[in-house]
Amino acid sequence: MAVANTVAWRRRHLVTMEDLFREEIELILDTAPQFLAVQKRESGIKKVPLLQGRLVVNLFLEPSTRTRISFELAAKRLSADTLTITTSGSSAVKGESLHDTLANIEAMHSDIVVIRSRFAGAPAILTHRHTSRIINAGDGSHEHPTQALLDAFTIRQHVRAQRDDPGAGLDGLRVAIIGDIAHSRVARSNIWCLTKLGASVVVCGPRTLLPPKIERMGVDVTSDLREAMKGADVVYALRIQLERQAQSLFPSLREYIRLFRVDSESLKVAPENALVMHPGPINRDIELAADVADGPRSVILEQVSNGVAIRMAIMHLLANSGPEE
Amino acid sequence: MAVANTVAWRRRHLVTMEDLFREEIELILDTAPQFLAVQKRESGIKKVPLLQGRLVVNLFLEPSTRTRISFELAAKRLSADTLTITTSGSSAVKGESLHDTLANIEAMHSDIVVIRSRFAGAPAILTHRHTSRIINAGDGSHEHPTQALLDAFTIRQHVRAQRDDPGAGLDGLRVAIIGDIAHSRVARSNIWCLTKLGASVVVCGPRTLLPPKIERMGVDVTSDLREAMKGADVVYALRIQLERQAQSLFPSLREYIRLFRVDSESLKVAPENALVMHPGPINRDIELAADVADGPRSVILEQVSNGVAIRMAIMHLLANSGPEE
Amino acid sequence: MAVANTVAWRRRHLVTMEDLFREEIELILDTAPQFLAVQKRESGIKKVPLLQGRLVVNLFLEPSTRTRISFELAAKRLSADTLTITTSGSSAVKGESLHDTLANIEAMHSDIVVIRSRFAGAPAILTHRHTSRIINAGDGSHEHPTQALLDAFTIRQHVRAQRDDPGAGLDGLRVAIIGDIAHSRVARSNIWCLTKLGASVVVCGPRTLLPPKIERMGVDVTSDLREAMKGADVVYALRIQLERQAQSLFPSLREYIRLFRVDSESLKVAPENALVMHPGPINRDIELAADVADGPRSVILEQVSNGVAIRMAIMHLLANSGPEE
């Protein structure tokens, strides 16, 4: 690792970015590069035995492919055994509570449980009664902390390369997050993470999709895409949940595209080396133009690649943390 | 192991409790503790290589989470390779017979096939034509032998601890099984197992949910919950299949709860140290009060934990048995 | 291996039989026996470490059990890590393109991606933009190359045994393929494969299920089952897609059975030692009589067993091929 970190990791769970201190975030980011090297097989090593014989359970109560396989792969590259439980075919259909489901998983001696749930706060509540390490893989519209961490890692990677400074951080950067801010756990976790790391954040979307009092999170707010992009080092397009349209939360798709799509036209106001990011999966040519998604500014696939390394780092840190004080 | 057992295991399959001799049941129970120690990592060992390179196929043709993952984990902790086939997305949808499905699995050189099916007797029929070791993971309303074995193991554990006698068995114990006896494979397998081990069983439920001539299985029968609980060393609540109500098999949920729920009130007639058991998943506050399920008498999560060890023991015994005489 | 092969394998992908040269087909067939020995544990070896630490992703966008588990097992017996993605619960439901799905999988550093898709040509198109080794596990009505290879391997095995000649090939053999030729990727891949290996092929089915100008593929065509079977060394019955009947592509099931079913009656015109094959799953007593499927001429379960070995051979060859020229 390039940077020695003087903080020791003490947490047993990772459920929100709101909870984390800057030093903890940086410790995770500093731990990831060694795992990225494993994933890329830079030294011929394809797996590490750090979690050999441990059991990682992926409890995905909402459909998901990429986040689920990212966690599964992270666990496998740490040599853990993995079990994946998805909603279909699970006891959840029999009306069992999430507490009971987790109690049963733990009775089989799980070490880490990764949970995706449509209920905001579910992972946090579970930490109070259970002994497994819990990682929040997305809880309703609340948080998606591992996404924010992989995003921050990706930004830092590029800043360090651009400035040729291996110690550079996110201080002073400006990040524009565009889209349905109100319903986005990705936006919330990123706002917490980026501001703690010293970046400034501007959120931009239709008024109906901006949560009231969002300024209290310490961000700038606008419904003018060009204003948001001006001076942005990072342009982060959120995925539009097309089903929101049925709820009349925005007038029409055509209108949304006209006003908020990140494309080569709207990007003209952003600095030339601004990064374009997206949490995936992309609605091509809706919130993000296809040519931009595949273009030189886009770091979207690096986000995916870094995601596995960040999740390996988190599992490694949690598995080796002592009991919380 | 505390007890040397003079019986050698000879069976290739585990399909019913009705078939097993007392000595065989005891051999399984005596084999489990060493695997429980692995599961609990008592000596730092997390896996054993006993089934390394062997293939365990989980063929689950009915939805199930906990039984499926218990078998999956058991196989993984024995270092076997595992394949899981569930109904959705399987050739079963293309109308292939179970015989053909199993023949195809065997053509790929499976060693052990764990089958859950809604057809009573399906696993037994399959043993006649196939060469894999077959374990019945529940067949219709017929049997669920591994559940009965883990239940007997859990009871024996507690009896031995209570009496401080490492050789104690179930002889003379009284077990009350409460609920929908007629449709419960758990009840049937437990009746066979417990009576063979020398325990006496009383079954209790609404008359419409008691199978005719159940006395012939050697059990007492009553529809009076308090009568059933009187003198019971174990109170075993079955899961109510809520869909039975639509079939008018019992008058109303409120009525069921009033007459048959295991709760702190009804438990007053049972001995103070009676164990409370349930096969899961629990309908909280329907067949079992939530505070009792989570209370000091409940050994429900121990059942789950023991289930993995019992299944490891069974797989180990079957995999090493010679051809049946 | 019995036969030294002077061709080196250079391809990175296996997407069609149409593309392959005879020498390449023979190289795959010559590579399979060593893996068949592993699968059958002939020398006590149950797995080989050839793909240790590599990642094989099974991307099955159509329901399938047997092909999917055959690939999964092949990967596991090569010691690869495996990830399986099926349609249900995948981002495909969120409308992501196949290109994006694959780009994301690759960003997590996959080595081999096995794809089943309902779109003819999809695997081929993907090879143009992606870096993983791609194996076509069936694309619409187009091709199913690994099925054709395992079929050719099975035929060759029997020819070599029958003639007691370890160098015998398929030259001069006659293969009758019976059923819905028009919609069968199995038929298409087999026609390419068998004719390249020097066999002659006759296809037979109702006129409505014979593709126009099929003769151009170098096969004989007939709607007379007995004519097709006369002199056939192999009788290959295709699975009838029962849903075609609703599309009025054949008059009635009874009519189909009367005219095209492979059974002991119709087989009388075939040579006595003709092999009976089927890609599975069988509609028993529809396209193939149950007693024939289970009879001495049938090599259907050998096809299944050989399938794992062929897929191990293909993965091994692809994983070790250099960049394509």
Please tell me about this protein's structure.
Three copies of one chain form a homotrimer. Chain A is α/β, with parallel strands linked by helices. Chain A has two domains: 6-144 and 304-321, Aspartate/ornithine carbamoyltransferase (Rossmann fold), CATH 3.40.50; 146-303, 3-Layer(aba) Sandwich (Rossmann fold). Chain A has helices spanning 22-39, 66-77, 98-107, 122-129, 145-163, 185-196, 225-229, 243-246, 253-260, 290-293, 300-319; strands spanning 55-60, 81-86, 112-117, 133-139, 174-178, 200-204, 220-222, 234-237, 275-277. Chain A has a five-stranded parallel beta sheet. A four-stranded parallel beta sheet of chain A has the order 2-1-3-4, with helices on both faces. Chain A starts with 21 loop residues before the first helix and ends in a 6-residue tail after the last helix. Residues 89-94 of chain A have low confidence and may be disordered. Chains in contact: A-B, A-C, B-C.
